[in-house]
Structures are given as C-alpha cells and as structure tokens.
Write a structure and sequence with these properties.
binds magnesium ion, binds ligand GDX, globular, Spore Coat Polysaccharide Biosynthesis Protein SpsA, Chain A, alpha/beta, 381 residues, 2 domains, 8-stranded mixed sheet, single chain
Length: 381
C-alpha cells in the first residue's frame, strides 16, 4: 500500500492539483495527500480539486492541515512530520514525498522509486541534474558538512541530500515518527535531519535518477534563500559528533546521465542583485566574529569591504569559514545569522564568477572535487 504526499504553501493550486492527479492516476498509488501550510484561498482551491481527482480515480485524495509538532519555525518540517506521524499511525507500507511545485513531475518518478523499494531498499531518494548555480546550499553548506562530519561514508556523496523527493518504507516512517530530532525540526532543516536519520537506520538507500532534472520555481536575488540557508546550516551543526552510517551500509544509485542542454545554460539566481547585498563595510559585530578565524584567513576577509574581497572566498578559505560556522553558528542570533548569510553569499558569488562562468561541466567537476578534497582533509585530521 503506497501513499503520495505533497507539502504545499503558496504554490499555484492548479500546479499542485496537476501533480496530485498524476500521483492518483498511478496504479501503484492507493492514496494522495497534500499538506497545506495554513487555511486560506489556496488551501480551499486545492481541497475542492482534490475531491474531483478522488472521484475520477476512485481513491482517497485529500488535503490535511499541517500540525504544530516541532520547536523551530513552523515550516516545511511540520508539514512533513504531520504526514509522517499520520502515515505511521495508519501503517502505510510506502510513503512518497514530492515538492508540490515540480513542473515536470510524471509517473516515472513514482515508478522509479517503487522499483527500488521492490528491490529491497528501505529509502529511495530522487537525484537529478541541476543548473551549475542552483543548489548552492547543498554544495556550499550541506555536502561540505557531511564531508567533514562523516568522511568515508556515502553521506557526502549523496547527490541531493536536501531534496524533498523521497520514498520511505514502513520501518523508516515508524522510526522517523519516533525520533525527537526529526519531530522538533519544523523548519527547512527537516531535509538534512531526514537524510541523516534515514542513513543510519541500516535499511538501505537508493538514489533514483531523473534525467530531465527537477523543474521548479528558481530564485531572484539570493536573499530569498536566507531563511533556508540559516536553517539548513543549523541542521548541519546539530549533526556534529553523531555517528554516521557504517562502512557496510547498503547504498545504490542509478548512474548519472548527460544533463539536458537547456539546464546547462540556466543561471539560477540574479547575480547583480545578489552582489548588491554584500555591503561596502563589515558590520562591527560581524567583524569581531570573523576575527575568531585563523589570522591569515581573518586578514584576507577583513582587509576591505565584503563587496570588494568576496573574490578571495575560494574553496580553501571557505573550508576555514565553514568550520567556524559549523562550530559556532547560533540560530536566532542576529549577528551570526547575518554573518553566515554574508559569508555564504561571498562564497557563492566567488564560485559563480570564477568557476560557473567557465561552463557547466567544468563547474560541476570543480564542485564535486572540492567536496572530495574536504572529505580527504577531514579524514586526515
Ligand atoms: N505545508 C507546507 N508548509 N509546505 C511548505 C512550507 C510550509 O511551511 N514551506 C514550503 N513548503 C512546500 C512548498 O510549497 C513546496 O511544495 C515544497 O515545500 C518546497 O518548497 P520550495 O519553496 O519549492 O523550496 P525550494 O526552494 O524549491 O527548495 C526545495 O529544494 C531544496 C533543495 O533540494 O535544495 C525544498 O524541498 C528544500 O527543502 C530543499 O532543500
Ligand atoms: Mg521548489
């Protein structure tokens, strides 16, 4: 018995309903839920449409309201945990999660995940090619954190550790429903803790490849990602010191394929608008936090304003800065939040100007080899 769940907040109801209809039409699927952030016009429209889909496919299709389960900002984590809790209580064998804003969702996502579960994997994550300037939290925060904290395991090598597209089998759903760390993570950090928690369950993890990529809403200036950045950073910090998956952990993956040509040309965010956010001078409170870096690193950053020194934020300097953030960042502290955003922005812009501009394949090779280098450095410490 398989269930599909779409968390949704402010998406166009017709897009959400289109995806729900695709899920309902799949023979492997017995029920579809959309989990709304709150009551309102969008939620009502999806609820009305859900009734029509249900009648057309003769299976339950409904809208749930997310409950307040966690301790952090009420966000996507509460929505996923609402579904996980109820699915565990109902005893579903398989639960698929998909972001509701995917514009190229089709049955092959569901079929690919079901096939991997049929082959005995307890968790299936979808992987897909992304633009060279997309996934900047994944590449600059989460994968480096997995490389440092869990070197030698499959965690740093996961293609989409933050992706909201995942299939969980019953034992995973039950363990997640019983995990305090997962339940408390009501914000954007949910994907990080789900990835970590499922990786240490010993039930096998498969990555299913979606060759066309995940098409969904991209961003304007990078300040739209500030909340996600600091919440994903905090989630990464919360894993420091925890045990990783064992060396015998079962991990399989479809091979990657050549990304679609149009995706290679996409610029995922507004570069000039983001550059204006860097600022001409270092705020005093942030400069004093940066001073905790080794002298040489702090000197390179503080010798001029952020908008003039951002190009110095290469992979080596970012390793030092990322280590400082991982060890010291405080969620809810305005100085740390502002500083973490500014430093990440410097890193993303430096990479965009220096590597992403060289072409897609070069940029992706650079990102991958940087994470590998971080992993080697961490293992030798
Ligand atoms: N119910 C509910 N409540 N749904 C939410 C909320 C919330 O507070 N916030 C977002 N959503 C829904 C949203 O409508 C969409 O369907 C999905 O969650 C993802 O949100 P979106 O704004 O499209 O996130 P974005 O920027 O595409 O990030 C996604 O991909 C990231 C990644 O792969 O890098 C998202 O799944 C992130 O968690 C993930 O890290
Ligand atoms: Mg999206």
């Amino acid at each position: 018995m398989s269930l599909v769940v779409f968390p949704f907040k402010s998406e166009d109801p017709s897009l959400v309903l289109g995806n729900m209809a695709i899920a309902a039409a799949n023979d492997a699927i017995d029920e579809v839920w959309a989990v709304a952030a709150e009551e309102g016009a969008g939620e009502k429209a999806v609820d009305r449409g859900a009734g029509e889909i249900s009648r057309a496919h003769l299976k339950p299709v409904s809208v749930l309201l997310q409950q307040r389960l966690g301790k952090l900002r009420p966000g996507k984590g509460d929505a996923m945990n609402t579904a996980i809790k109820r699915a565990a209580e109902d005893g579903w064998d398989r639960v698929h999660f998909y972001d509701a804003d995917i514009t190229n969702f089709d049955s092959s996502w569901i079929d690919g995940a079901e096939a991997a579960a049929d082959n005995g994997y307890g968790v299936v994550r979808h992987r897909f090619p992304r633009a060279a300037t997309d996934a900047m939290i994944t590449w600059m925060i989460t994968r480096p954190a997995f490389a440092r904290i869990f070197p030698g395991t499959f965690l740093p090598r996961l293609d989409q550790p933050l992706g909201g597209e995942v299939l969980l089998t019953r034992s995973a759903v039950e363990s997640l429903a019983g995990s305090e760390m997962v339940r408390e993570r009501s914000d954007w950090g949910i994907d990080t803790v789900l990835t970590y928690t499922t990786s240490v369950m010993g039930i096998g993890l498969y990555e299913h490849h979606v060759a066309d990529g995940k098409r969904h809403a991209l961003y304007g200036s990078l300040d739209e990602l500030k909340e996600m950045l600091i919440e994903c950073l905090d989630a990464a910090c919360s894993l420091d010191g925890l045990p990783g998956p064992g060396s015998d952990a079962r991990h399989g993956s479809d091979p990657a394929s050549d990304p679609p040509e149009d995706l290679k040309r996409i610029v995922a965010y507004d570069i000039e608008g983001s550059r204006r956010l860097l600022g001409k001078v270092w705020p005093e409170d942030e400069a004093s936090l940066v001073a905790a870096l080794p002298d040489e690193a702090a000197g390179r950053l503080l010798s001029d304003g952020p908008d003039r020194v951002f190009g110095r934020m290469d992979a080596n300097l970012w390793y030092e800065v990322h280590g400082l953030l991982l060890g010291r960042f405080v969620l809810g502290d305005p100085s740390w939040e502002s500083l973490a955003f500014r430093l990440w922005l410097m890193r993303v812009l430096a990479y965009t100007v220096q590597q992403a501009s060289q072409g897609y394949d070069e940029a992706m090779g650079y990102l991958r080899s940087t994470v590998e280098r971080y992993e080697t450095t961490a293992s030798s410490c």
